[in-house]
Amino acid sequence: MKSSLNVPEYVRDALAGVAQRLGFTSNQHSVDYDFRVFENNRSVVSVLYRVTFREEPREATVLCKVPPPDADDTLLALFEREVFVYGKLLPALEQFQRTRQEGTAATPTTAGDREESSVPFAPSCYHAHCDAKKGEGIIILEDVQRRGFSNRHKFEPMDYDHARLAMVQLGRFHATSLALKKHQPELFEQYRYMGDVTGERVLAMEGFEQTMEQAFENAAATLPAGDAARREKLARLRGCFAEELQNISDTALSEPFCVVCHGDYAGDNMMFSYNGGFPSRMVMLDWQLAKYGSPALDFVHTVFLSTDESFRRNHYDNMLQTYHNALLSHLERLGDDSATEWFPLTVLMRLIKLQARQALVLGLLHIPLTVASEEAAIAEGEPGEEDEDSASVRISDTTDAKYQSRMAGLLKDVFRLGFL
């Protein structure tokens, strides 16, 4: 597909290297760029497009991520973090799983058991590089859509089947991090320094404090008028929200259970493949916010920000148990037969209570942004100018109703579970 988007020389060179790695002959294959992925991509952190290599009788497709042309220091820092994850962390976790599997007496004997023991957490990465000083960066990934993976509807709360698989995958990911930390501490040491890339930058942003003040005011308006006690609790949190956000980076509160967290473990950062109509496998995307911290950070992010009140009322305990069981089971597969003793469910519940208020603070921004993004997506799909006025009213009404429902549900559950 032709496009005016300029492809830098360093990107072309990297793609040429990947093509050779995939078995294509130098100067004898074609390279086609499809920028429609980029045009539909709302990310401000990266530009994404699809690249197809062709040499009769075969072809292969990869996805290419680069920083936006006008990337500032913060965006480059985020991109650099994702390059580190794809280039260093994820290969180390996969290699560690294979090594532990080979060295464990109870080595799995079936193909299914072997695959479950060595879990791929993300699409395969063929190349990852970043030079922030030059403003250059590139990540070349497997196009998992070719293997039947797809995104669920990004604006809809997660249902039980998707959320359950997300908890299983998260438990395995955190278990691998914990096991690497325990069995190869020298290798793991470098990951302890994966701090919060955006925390201090966000707090220092002009107008951020005013934005949060308005977010708290909007959230308080969803509480019943006569609920003075809960309004007072929310007001106290409003007075110290900056400290709550800073506490996310205080790993001392959650040691010795800290892991490498995904950092943005939301439904729209997951892709699923299906068997018989049900999600059976998943991979995690967009690792720009990955950091060292409490495992509860990823758990509360998914359960409180990617589901709704009805889901949490019916399935919260199940999600807690599913995650914990997956974590313990994978630790055992990696050779730790005492995980139940040193990481009981009570420890996980304590860690979640430490992080839940921070999830609420993030939710004050996440929910209105999600609703606004959905409004924008609907607006882009409007059929024509003749329907513009009626469509705008419908979108506005839906937006208000969805915000009220989601925010009220989040507050209700945080209070119900004793987190505030």
TrEMBL record:
CHK kinase-like domain sequence ranges: 139-333
Coiled coil location: none
Domain of life: Eukaryota
Listed SUPFAM superfamilies: Protein kinase-like (PK-like)
Spans annotated as Disordered: 98-118
Gene3D superfamilies xref list: 3.90.1200.10
SMART domains: CHK (SM00587)
Composition skew (Polar residues), residue ranges: 98-110
Protein name: CHK kinase-like domain-containing protein
